[in-house]
Amino acid sequence: MTAPSAPQILIVDDARDVREPLGLYLRKRGFRTRLAANAAEARRIMAEAVIHLAVVDIMMPGESGLNLCHDLTREGGTPVILLTALTEQADRINGLDIGADDYVTKPFDPRELVSRIQAVLRRVPASQPQPSTLRRRFATFVHDPLRELLLTDQGQEIELTSGENRLLGALLDHPGETLSRMHLMDLIRGREARAYDRAVDNLISRLRRKIGDDARETRLIVTEWGGGYRMAATVEELR
């Protein structure tokens, strides 16, 4: 019998022959499970139950697994493992950028998925760091984290991905302080993600391009070789 205190896993997959056998397999391995055939069902379950981790198929009718992943990781910090097809490499990268913790490629060995679930759950801290929701000015930009936007002094709006938004917020939380890749991953995801620490470098590169910080004479986000990254600009909170 599964213990009431066991982690509860949400499986979101439109294929019954995937979600039901997987749910049974996880229960036999000591997990509690909830099953959803689409994103709408998953949202209803999330509203009524405590979910410790979600296993989400990317390709589903209606709302995509990527969109659901974005909302789960942004709103509640729920860890997500994506189920992807071999042909969905770009979607896997996008999923990691928006906050997914890992992915497993179909067809998969359920024993591998259990190992991935256990690894992610071990990395989840008891409490999640709460990112700032304040608008802040740095250099010639204003960061609006709630709208996931950068506003320039000329009135231009620059859209940020969720990953870019969280990363910039973390840098602005610690102006002048060198933050290692792993520290940044802890801050922006609320849990370690050692297998994907290079994702920070990719996010930094994209963020630099958006703020024009990739020219040699401009350095707002400074690379500290062997150390990490540092926000070199003065940061001002706006009320």
Automatic annotation (TrEMBL):
Record key words, sorted: DNA-binding, Phosphoprotein, Plasmid, Transcription, Transcription regulation, Two-component regulatory system
Modified residues (4-aspartylphosphate): 57
A Pfam family reported for this protein in Swiss-Prot or TrEMBL: Trans_reg_C
PROSITE patterns found in the cross-reference section: OMPR_PHOB (PS51755), RESPONSE_REGULATORY (PS50110)
Residue ranges the UniProt entry marks as DNA-binding: 131-233
Record's keyword annotation contains NAD: no
Coiled-coil stretches: none
Record-annotated Response regulatory domain positions: 8-121
Domain named OmpR/PhoB-type: residues: 131-233
InterPro entries: CheY-like_superfamily, OmpR/PhoB-type_DNA-bd, Sig_transdc_resp-reg_C-effctor, Sig_transdc_resp-reg_receiver, WalR-like, WH-like_DNA-bd_sf
Lineage: superkingdom: Bacteria
Official protein name in the record: Response regulator transcription factor
